[in-house]
Amino acid sequence: MSPGPKSLATIAQRVQDGLGNTRSRAHRIHHHTRDTFSPVLTLTRGLRKQAAWARNWWKAAGADKRKVGAAGVAAMVLALYFLPYAPIVTVVLVLGSAAWLGRGEKPPAPEPAPDPTDVRLQAVYNGLVPYLADDHDPARIFHPGGPYQDAFRHWELDGDRITRLELAYSPYFTDNDPAARARVERALQAKTGRGREYLYDWDTENNHLTLAALSPLPPPVPAQPYVTAPREILLGITDTTSTNRLTPIRVDNTTRQLPPVMWRTGNRSIDPHLLAVAAPGAGKSNLLRTIALQAARDGDLVVVDGSGSGDFACLVGRKNILRVETGYQGTIEILTWLRHETQRRIAAVTHAKQHGTPVPDNARRPLWVILDEITELTESATAQGATDPQEFLDLPLRLGRAAHVGIVTSVRPAHLDRLRPALVADTHTRIVLGSLDPEVTGVVLGATPGISGGEAMPPGRGYVRIGNNAVIRIQIPYTPDPLEDDTCEADRRRVLDLLPPRIDEAARAGDPRHTNRRPSADQAARAAAHISLAKQPEPTG
Q1: Ramachandran angles phi, psi of 100, nearest 5°
Q2: Of 193, 273, 341, 410, which one's alpha carbon is 20 to 30 angstroms from that of 140?
Q3: For residue 491, which phi and psi values (nearest 5 degrees)?
Q4: Strands (E), 279-345
């Protein structure tokens, strides 16, 4: 009868146990044997070392030394023959020296593990050598194989990550070259970590560079009424070190004091116009809706949707929203009216100052013009041989501050070359959203941000520069389109509450500036030269 499966398993287990026991017995026998014959093994090892030493000496010695050595050995043998107890003493000495040479040597102590901080800083130093080494520098602050202590003056780490680093570099380094500085910044970014943003402070006078890790900006704040002064527009949130002002912002049902980016406009502002450069999906429409909702509180607004995306359809038919246009002909009508309206306001302001009378309200009321993707209409006009809409903007851009006219323009990075020089030169408030090429960012802002990292920027993140001030980081508010299907109900209701009331509701409330009468585009164009705020065209969608 053949054994069953259980019997086979039992036999296999016994065989495995027997093999395991056999191995353990063999190890014990080996250790016991070594312990028992340890003196013999020690003497054998020592005698072998003595013989090896004598053999090596004989091979390395010359003929004269060999003769002297042979004579010495013969003399010792002769002395051992005549001296009493000499053989015993010799054997004891030989065995004693063999025991000493064959003793078990202690293994060398392991070298201490290198300090992780030293390893990290040395790696950063080695990464900077190709960019900062200079053979003409007698101090040789950076050179291959050099210690990082020669260049690094101060450093701070959070765990194994560098949060602050101060270094000195050679005075022969061309720190006035943006390309050279960009190479150093990229090398530092690669060695210190790509997960966060770093600020680079170049002290070119003293040849010092300070690298500091920036704390993350707050998440996008929801659209809400912001605490601002007249003629102020909140563009977003920045670092606490970039502004000395805090404003209450409601986030997650709690009110927090956050540092805002305030854009001051009006006749005393030297930066009345704004240019936003952003790739699709970077938050450009959220920025423009944020500006529009704040501008419509105490001023009039005209919107040109050059791409025809319908991102501003929620503004149609609202109080203070004069018109929302998407087509080429309607845009030409609006910009023609804008040019004449600017002339009318300038004439009213000049007349009031010459006669010492107050400026009329219809010449002081803020007028905002949002041009989203105006370059799309420029391309269409070029293809048709028609007039470029940007040609109508030279006068409003030049006299906008005195006429209380503000122009907000947005464009994609690939369409920057389609902007007219006047539009580029007169927009002194610049915003860049999303991850763009550093060269494009520097060209748009007129200065390098001095910040690198954060390659995966979330929507709404970017940099802003107002006038000649420093470039700072910005996180724009989240102002979604309430007419989009994927907008959640809470955000939809929040934006709808911020919109101005509809025109029919304003008319019922007794506002004389808004009625149900909607003049046609032709009537608006014919009246463009003499139009006043009291007779401005109503929104036509």
Answers
A1: -70, -40
A2: 193
A3: -70, -35
A4: 300-305, 321-325
